[in-house]
Design a protein that fits this description.
about 290 residues; alpha/beta; Malonyl-Coenzyme A Acyl Carrier Protein, domain 2; Alpha-Beta Plaits; 2 domains; four-stranded antiparallel β-sheet; 13 helices; about 50% helix; globular
């Protein structure tokens, strides 16, 4: 059983997708479609853009999606048994499993990025990685704070990301260091993703999702909000909308995929962040970085 996993925001780098573009006619055509759809040469930014340019949410999210989905489309004899994606990567997984088309996915990701960016402008907010503390302690500490701060990404049992207002995140980080956290690291993001502060973005994404006719995926997709597999179109839609304000249950997802029989994981997209995370979840699983 083969599981294909797709990365999210933070995996971008200058030069992403360039070798793929140069080596595959199919990839070239898909990059051209993406440029036309976006209304600007996003491939040029992917290949030559600075790290600052690539960090902008309206560029980052579609760029990672474009790289991941084109790479998956160029894999010979691509027949996944199961798919999953980390946050933004869930949209790449949906295209790879033929639940939505490349253009439909790009449209959703573009609207999602814009809506999230707009939500970020309403309130100064951030995220921080907490290393070396159990989830229960982190959740309880967040719950005791008066301002908005929540557990947002359950990356591994020992690496959980919190998300909220800047003051609340700073305060909780201080409290968690007193509780015994090995390290707290403020992340280089401009918003509190997967927290209630993303609520203003929900309506935009919901309207966009409901305007698309989803197809039954060719294999189960394990979704962030509950770490469970589904092929139900309506469930997939609902969970995509909930994902904006709900935490990413990544290590629970990987554990469930293993329980369901996955013998190999293939990371498809820029970077190798998920490969590193997966090794910390379960050192015995085989992880292959797809490169073309």
């Amino acid at each position: 059983m083969k599981a294909f996993i797709f990365p999210g925001q933070g995996s971008q780098f200058s030069g992403m997708g360039q070798e793929l573009y140069q080596s595959s006619e199919k990839a070239k055509k898909m990059f051209t479609v993406a440029n036309e759809f976006m209304g600007f040469d996003i491939s040029k930014l992917m290949f030559k853009g600075s790290s600052e340019e690539l960090k902008k949410t309206n560029v980052t999210q579609p760029a990672i999606f474009i790289h991941s989905t084109i790479l998956a489309a160029c894999i010979p004899d691509f027949h996944p048994n199961m798919v999953a994606g980390h946050s933004l990567g869930e949209f790449s997984a949906l295209v790879a499993s033929k639940c939505i088309s490349f253009k439909e996915g790009l449209g959703l990701v573009t609207k999602r990025a814009e809506a999230m960016y707009n939500a970020c402008q309403l309130q100064q907010s951030t995220m921080a990685a907490i290393i070396g503390l159990d989830a229960d302690i982190i959740e309880n500490t967040c719950n005791q704070h008066n301002d908005i701060v929540v557990a947002a990404n359950y990356n591994t049992p020992n690496q959980i990301v919190i998300s909220g207002t800047i003051d609340a995140v700073d305060s909780v980080c201080s409290n968690l260091r007193e509780e015994g956290a090995k390290k707290t690291v403020i992340l280089p993001v401009n918003g509190a993703f997967h927290s209630p502060l993303m609520q203003p973005a929900k309506k935009t994404l919901e309207e966009a999702i409901n305007n698309i006719q989803f197809q039954k995926p060719i294999c189960p997709i394990y979704q962030n909000v509950n770490a469970q597999a589904t092929i139900d179109k309506n469930v997939i839609k609902s969970n995509l909308i909930l994902q904006l304000t709900a935490p990413v249950k990544w290590y629970q997802t990987i554990e469930n995929i293993i329980l369901d029989g996955a013998l190999e994981f293939f990371e498809v997209g820029p970077g190798n962040i998920l490969s590193g995370i997966n090794k910390r979840i379960n050192r015995s699983i085989k992880i292959i970085k797809v490169e073309i």
